[in-house]
């Protein structure tokens, strides 16, 4: 048997998170295949076959797979599933949308957000906003899992030589149609993959204050800007900047939290960061329990000073 990884695509081709899923899939000790489904994706097959650790690319090129519509991809997965011992995707919005649908139709217990593969049926996944890690055993037979891309190093984009096999499309399920996409134009690194993330809490006070205070520092550091849910709910920061259990899980080399209390739901999304720095004027703020470096100070004093020092 083999393990099937589902490729997630963007305008550059295969996303890095998919290569993390390849690394995870390799740990089953079986052949690893990649499902490359999309519209006009034949060119991406070359990129896919170069990914280290893959044995085969299943290429399916059809209009119904444009834009990664889960309603159309699910029947394809259900069709392919009997040939595989496991199906793996990254726990991104795409993977979290697609795999539970296939798991339900196949009557398989889904294992979500896996952070460690102990053996082919035993996995570790966080629970209760990351407050504990559960070791779960999947029943024998098909396993369907999403893996947390921040904890599995992405497989090398080069060095592989997987064979490419073209397979038949499963057709349009007729349940959803693509209308349009409103793309946020990012002028800084993407939150999920940034090497440095700086985050602000509701203590920033307003949308204007949030932007004016954090942007100059983010510019100097080349950092992505994150926010707590309280800041997002208060309209200070956009939804897609929310970091945490119900936002983006990040694992940058450096995470700096300004005026963030350190609620479990926030900490659950940052604790794989290599270095966590917290600035909070309350010495008892819970964020200091997870911080590698803490500064008890007013953020409105620290941020301009830090920005000026880094510029100088
Ligand atoms: P607060 O808790 O109000 O903390 C503000 C902090 O700023 C305080 O520690 C204060 O001492 C400090 N401060 C104030 N002024 C200054 C200053 N001038 N200088 C320095 N420090 C200052 N939250 C998330 O972030 N992400 C999630 O994904 C998430 N998911 C959730 C899911 C559920 C189901 C629930 C119930 C909650 C979730 N939350 C999430 C909300 C979470 O519980 C907290 O309410 C939220 O993280 C708190 O945000 P905050 O730290 O900005 O605000």
UniProtKB/TrEMBL annotation:
Keywords assigned: Electron transport, Transport
Organism: Deefgea tanakiae
UniProt cross-references to PANTHER family, sorted A to Z: ELECTRON TRANSFER FLAVOPROTEIN ALPHA (PTHR43153), ELECTRON TRANSFER FLAVOPROTEIN SUBUNIT ALPHA, MITOCHONDRIAL (PTHR43153:SF1)
Domain of life (superkingdom): Bacteria
UniProt record similarity statement: Belongs to the ETF alpha-subunit/FixB family.
Matches recorded under SMART domains: ETF
Coiled coil: none
Domain Electron transfer flavoprotein alpha/beta-subunit N-terminal, residue spans: 3-182
Taxonomy of the source species: Bacteria, Pseudomonadati, Pseudomonadota, Betaproteobacteria, Neisseriales
Record's keyword annotation contains Transport: yes
Gene3D superfamilies attached to this UniProt entry: HUPs (3.40.50.620), TPP-binding domain (3.40.50.1220)
InterPro entries referenced in this protein's UniProt entry, alphabetically: DHS-like_NAD/FAD-binding_dom (IPR029035), ETF_a/b_N (IPR014730), ETF_a/FixB (IPR001308), ETF_alpha_N (IPR033947), ETF_asu_C (IPR014731), Rossmann-like_a/b/a_fold (IPR014729)
Xref: Pfam families: ETF (PF01012), ETF_alpha (PF00766)
CDD domains linked: ETF_alpha
The protein's name: FAD-binding protein
